[in-house]
Write a structure and sequence with these properties.
26% of the residues lie in helices and 23% in strands. A five-stranded antiparallel beta sheet has the order 1-2-3-6-7. The model has no long low-confidence stretch (mean pLDDT 94). The protein binds zinc ion (ZN). The site of zinc ion (ZN) has 8 residues, from strand 7 and helix 4.
């Protein structure tokens, strides 16, 4: 994705109040982000482990969503697969995160869930820039571009569900 500024990030959030968007913790050193390797920017709140954020480009401009981690529960499978990048991680390396829906849906308490890499580094796993460990990535005949397109499509579909 193209590099974005803190201001653009704060203005992109669709499912939280302007006040929340103003206060949420944007990554400190945006100039150090590997933008050319990112399909979206995702990060966890360092001071609030149940909160995470995802910002992605779309045809209508940048879209950001605030996410909450569903509390981990006993009895989950040993290995889960991220629904966005299809990387498998053991334990809680893949987490169910929920986004309050934008607008009226959110006011009524509706949310949308997604199973996602707990560190939101999908783009890096996809490109082999971050190692998911043995068995983390399936062997596929797709090119990297095709895999990145697939992830971008899944992210767009998730964001569309948040905004519908
Ligand atoms: Zn992922």
């Amino acid at each position: 994705m193209e590099p974005v500024t803190e201001r653009e990030i704060r203005a992109s959030f669709v499912n939280c109040s302007k006040g929340e968007a103003k206060r949420l913790p944007v990554p400190g050193d945006l100039s150090a982000c590997p933008w050319e390797d990112l399909d979206f920017l995702g990060w966890r709140d360092p001071s609030s482990p149940q909160r995470a954020y995802l910002v992605a480009p779309s045809v209508d401009g940048l879209v950001g969503v605030a996410l909450r981690l569903a509390s981990s529960h006993a009895g989950q499978p040993r290995r889960n697969m991220c629904s966005l990048c299809l990387t498998a991680h053991p334990g809680d390396g893949v987490t169910l995160m929920t986004a309050r829906k934008a607008g009226r849906g959110g006011q009524q308490g509706n949310s949308v869930g997604v199973y996602i890499c707990a560190d939101l580094a999908c783009s890096l796993y996809l490109r082999g820039k971050k190692d998911a460990g043995p068995g983390g990535r399936l062997h596929e005949s797709l090119t990297l571009d095709e895999k990145a397109d697939r992830t971008a499509t899944k992210v767009a579909a998730f964001l569309a569900r948040v905004m519908e």
